[in-house]
Amino acid sequence: MSGALRLERVTISLATRVLIPPLELSIMPGEVLTLMGPSGSGKSTLLNFLGGTLPGAFRASGRVWIGEREVSALAPQQRRIGILFQDDLLFPHLSVGENLAFGLEASLRTRRARAQRIEAALAEAGLAGFAPRDPATLSGGQRARVALLRLLLAAPEALLLDEPFNKLDAALRAEFRRFVFARAAAAGVPVLMVTHDATDAQAAAGAVLEIVPAPEGASIAPGARRTQAAAPVQSAGATVAEGL
Amino acid sequence: MSGTTLQRGLAPAPAPVAMPFWLRQAPRVTLALFLAPVAAGLLGTVLPAFGYLPAIGGRAVTLAPWRILFRQPGIGTAIGLSLASGLGATALSVLLVFGCCAHWAGRQPGRIGRSVLAPVLAAPHAALAIGLAFLLAPSGWIVRALSPWLTGWRQPPDIATVQDPYGLALTAGLLVKEVPFLLLMTVSALGQLPVARTLEAAAALGYDRASAWVKLILPQVYGQVRLPIYAVLAYALSVVDMSLILGPSNPPTLSVLALQWFTAPDVRMYFPAAAAALLQLAVVLGSIGVLRALELGIGRVGRCWIAAGRRRSRAAPVLRLAAVGVCGLTLLGVLSLVALALWSGAAGWRFPALWPRHWSAAQWIRQIGTVAWPLGTTVGVAAASSLAALLLVLGCLENEQHGAAVPARRSLWLLYLPLLVPQIAFLFGMQVLLTVCRLDGTLIAVIWSHLLFVLPYVFLALADPWRSLDQRYARTALCLGASPRRVFLRIKLPLLLRPVLVAAAVGLAVSIDQYLPTIFAGAGRVVTLTTEAVTLASGGDRRMTGIFGLLQAVIPLGAYCIAIGATAARRFAPQPTEGRS
Fold first, then answer.
1. Which of A62, A208, B258, B369 could form a disulfide with A223 if both were Cys (CB 3.0 to 4.6 A apart)?
2. In this complex, how many residue pairs, one in chain A and one in chain B, have their CB atoms less than 8 Å apart?
3. Range of the domain at B394
4. Cβ pair B56, B47 in contact under 8 A
């Protein structure tokens, strides 16, 4: 069980353009917060910042906490924040099992224990016996599931979802969405998802925020397209500082 | 919002990825290793060119070296020869390569084309020049193939087909070597353009393929191959090893003249030698300037020409001719290498016979002792300089991906300086620097001098693949808790193993190619296959020359094959990466 993911006056700008205005929010463990906005609005950039891999051209400020731990001063590999991209990004030179082993915490020592842990994770995901396979031989849906498994085996304390359902077709999309949210809930970590698809937000069944880009600087508001399923923003513990 | 919160909130976030010290310094170290010898080298040439070299008594700044230089017999002819062969070879190479690419527009070279080009690309200039001399000489393979049935010759004719006074053999040698290089550069640049779709779109507007290629593809691709073209121009104008083997000897080309004076027993000849080297630099820079002006002029006229909207051209037959020319030159290159192999194993080969009467390994066995030492030195120097180059280049590229400061990235173009400045213009000065450091004549000095030329090519070979690897692989691995070192070793290096090995093979080939740097930095004491081959080429022992030339050509090719073979055997082939997010 991890603590809440908390953003404290996080701003991001590129040259003179403000992508993310001062943003304060907190996401409790087990909750999903959806951040919506058109492409190019800086959603993914925010996730890069949280993960610690913001490209040098951007300027960012503010602090990020997980529970009582400030992670914004840490190197990406020390943050324990997992990111799921829309591409599965399975390492093509490693087998499915090796991909998972790369993600699996090093604290699990023996080779046998690690193999068992990986096999168990694969079996739970309906992929029993897939460990020695070349990732290129898997279907899109299978690859997506392996990518999530790899992420969860690293025991992250927060999950960031960067439009992870974008490249899947409608049927697979619904199935993988259920898989992701069920796994995230089971892991009991805060989840921040960015998307531009309203059905993703609906399926997440959490609070929704929307980035509204404007020439004088973007603003972030409670989601206008909020669905019945989405809880009110305040109850999710998210507060928004608008403008600059 | 309280003031303190505001201040805290607006303070820049700490850089999340702290780069290790050595990585942060990689571009600086690389440039220092480069600029120091080139700058010191140029200074060490400029000063003696104006009479200043206290070590041998030159203490006053005078124009005397230039007066001596221009009083030398044949100096005008030497300059003319350099210009004719250098400019001629460069212009022809560029026209042939562009013509050939336009002729085969939209089609990638097949596997056969690639595997024919590879040995010529890998072979050092000297080996190719020796092989070409074996083909073109009055007693060479071409004349043998035509004698006596066509020519009636029973003795080798008394015609200067090699080392001819007009430098035609030298120009041919440069063409054989530079056309495949420019072709490779152009084809890989074309690979990044949507050529087929562009041509289709143009065809829909009524343009034939040739016009469409010249008007739409050429302007886009030229910027990508500009640097290689400048490098070919600089090289062709100032080449020494090919010129010693294929060029005329009395007078020789300007760069050979400078080398002869630098190595003359009379040290006072250093002064005109330095002046000649400086003149060589002026010739190269002037030619690059003229080419640049031509580019701008043609670009301006070309815009109007493109805007005129003419759709048909009569260029098709010319383009076919260019394609035939490129194929012919490639064949000549391959035959040159075959000739090297034949002569190294021939026993008893009378003149008009097309094939040797016997084959014998005796020559090889007899020469093992002679070959072993230069072979070891060649491979050792090549391996050391390639490894050093690889480490520095990987350092620079990693540094760049960690969001290095922009100036460091921009100044990397300085890396290409050693390819654009003629070797003769700074190697003498660099030797002075090495003498001061008490390094002259050592292996370290030779490795360092090779590094100047190996590194730019390793960088060229590795930069694009390294930069185009989807950066999210590394990001994902970091977020999984892997340290940057582990990400580098377990993810990036294995994914990019093939380009890394190919870059290393390119480095080996470039190092084995170096003649002049070995002569200068080695102070004549370091003997490689290349220096031996060039020396032997002026003698009459074709078998021995063949052995050295063949070895020289085989090692880089072997390295390429290993690089490709080692990565082909991998369990999972890397897939094409998708665009960066």
1. A208
2. 122
3. 19-48+361-571
4. no
